[in-house]
Write a structure and sequence with these properties.
169 residues, mainly alpha
């Protein structure tokens, strides 16, 4: 008798012979939702209300900060010790950037995939910035401002580099 949920055969058909750690992905999704529930509880217990809407300036600030922090977290050499238990080095692309791939199986591999994907990691980073905006707005805006300033600086460096290349070419 079936309980109406997906069967193991359904997962095997879905994976088409690929080694896809669906149960580990499910655990990470569960953890993400558990953290959200804890945030909601913390907001309620602290008496902080969830804003009806978020200002466009906060969205821009947190968006730039999320962009930078997800890149730092997923690719920078300086954060490689945090990724090392879950990844292995493919190559050092530059003095500040590495190319890594997930290692192991199951949850270890899934965490490695999360930590090496700037787009995947940005969802988690954006969530934490958003939770911080509700629970500790001043500190969150300060931290976000720091990473946003670095983002602007990085883009100015790239623009300068491109202009210098064009001028010398």
């Amino acid at each position: 008798m079936s309980d109406g949920g997906p069967s193991e055969a359904t997962f095997e058909v879905y994976k088409q012979g690929e080694d896809i750690p669906l149960s580990s992905y499910g655990l990470l999704a569960g953890a993400f939702n558990l953290i959200f529930a804890v945030f909601l509880l913390a907001a309620r217990l602290s008496g902080r209300s969830i804003p009806e809407r978020v200002d466009a300036t906060d969205i821009a600030l947190l968006g730039m900060a999320t962009h930078k922090l997800s890149l730092v977290g997923s690719q920078d050499v300086i954060t490689s010790p945090l990724r090392a238990p879950f990844t292995e080095l493919r190559e050092k692309e530059s003095p500040k950037k590495v190319d890594e791939k997930p290692r192991g199986e199951g949850l270890r591999r899934s965490v490695g995939e999360l930590l090496t994907c700037q787009f995947c990691l940005s969802v988690w980073v954006a969530s934490f910035f958003t939770y911080g905006l509700v629970l500790a707005p001043r500190v969150t805006r300060l931290v976000a401002a720091l990473f946003s300033v670095v983002t602007v600086s990085d883009h100015l460096h790239q623009a300068y580099k491109a202009l210098m290349k064009e001028a010398s070419g």
